[in-house]
What we know:
The structure holds two protein chains of two kinds.
Chain A: H1 12-20, H2 24-46, H3 49-65, H4 76-94, H5 111-117, H6 128-146, H7 150-160, H8 166-173, H9 177-194
Helix pairs in contact in A: 1-2, 2-3, 2-4, 3-4, 4-8, 6-9, 7-9, 8-9
Chain B: H1 6-9, H2 14-21, H3 32-37, H4 46-58, H5 61-87, H6 91-132, H7 135-158
Amino acid sequence: MEQLPGLSTATDQDVVRWARDGQERAHRELVRRYERPVFSLLLRMVRDRELAEDLAQETFVKALNAIDSYRPEFKFSSWIFKIANNAAIDHLRRRELDTLSLEGARDATTTERAEATALQISDRGESPLDEMEAKELGSAIEHAIGRLRPEYRSCILLRHVEDRSYEEIAEILDLPLGTVKTYIHRARAELKESLGPLRE
Amino acid sequence: MTEFDPLQSAPDDPILDRYLRSLPRLAPRPGFEDRVLARVRKPLPMRVRRARASLVSWASPARLWWASGLAAASSAAWTVALGSWLSGVDPEVATALLVAEVGVPVWSTVLDWIALGSRMAGGWALGVYQFVGPAVFAGAGALALLPMLSAMGLYLIARQPRGRKVRAYAAR
């Protein structure tokens, strides 16, 4: 078997090249690198943990099965986010969603369903008071993001959670650069208004 | 590279920025990688891909037409030559010649193989029966089921996941 030196430190383009050569470890590395960003984006878009995981699986399966059609002159991250965002938008167009809840979807009728649709935020070692405050404000920010239009939500999440540039967001969402800036500007204005009572 | 800072163009709001930046990346359930890779098509071995690529690169439409034409022409030429030869020969003589030169040897070979195969199969069956006794009949019944079970298993393993085709990125 061909050796894959420095798999975890290799660039995306190198890992993709090895994946196209048929190296399963390269496939696994690509999934490992992007499972959290892709899942986070999808979960905040569709607001259902189980559904987000299904969509994330579909995203990676599509990407890896079509790896031969990937064009190396573009960033792999942009490609995978594009597939993920398209999956989320396709789903959102098929149904209306309730507002986001840290405690679970409002239409959850069982404990299991509420837990499945609740956001899980990892413990970052804060004090109990900080954690409570962070959770409350975190819940509010998640609520506010959940109320944004899907297009605004994608832009805000890609910019502030995934730290993508405007140009990259424009590539991912297939939008003009000016439109991306406008969406982010409007999304921030809506978030500021939504969070108004908690900011004092 | 100078990065355009959206905070310069968006409404200035440090509190909002702080909470946006604090949004965590969330993780799927453990074992996500395995679940994904179980559904990904296994790529062909590199030597097979290279051979296929060489064949595809060689098989230009012009070459394929040439190869098909040559095969058809040689087949037609052979048929015409054989027909011409046979037409000049007495039918009875031609038939006797074909039977003697082709039919008899082929048929003899077939009979020899059948005889040899029968002897080998009979000897093997007798040996097995002497070794394991009447249980051989139960074993033979189980073996008869194996091809069917193997075919079903191969079908389930080889069945590829279906999915929508992904267009090439940025191919507009």
